[in-house]
Amino acid sequence: MAQFFDKAKNFVTDKLANVEKPEADLTDVDFRKASFDSVEYIGKVHVKNPYDHSIPICQISYTLKCVGREIISGTVPDPGSIKASDVTLLEVPVKVPHNVLMTLVKDVGADWDIDYELILGLTIDLPVIGNFTIPLSKKGEIKLPSLTSLFG
Length: 152
What we know:
Helix content: 10-25%
Number of helices: 3
């Protein structure tokens, strides 16, 4: 009897491992707006859904690292769902307080940017499989807002 359960377990594991899953790509991180207390950046994520029904997104978790250290992290709870048999664009807002950016002044060069790494975890609810997290990351340079973008 134990052999039967082992064979059944292996069969199900093999079938689930080969099930097509949604794919995601963190394509860009852009400056969105500046306020008196913070700067907001947007992470743009394209998610491809291979299924003929929409998939609910449980949450998006994010961590923004600059100069090798974590400067902000958080979650976007219940951001909606992924369109059926299509590519959905998700925008992940990352709000960074000015005082945090000021601690990174030593990395700011003449071109007024900071090296960053944005790490995202896109958690979706797949039927039968359950919650499934797609890990994403992108490295690049964040442009700091100029005085004209703050007050112009």
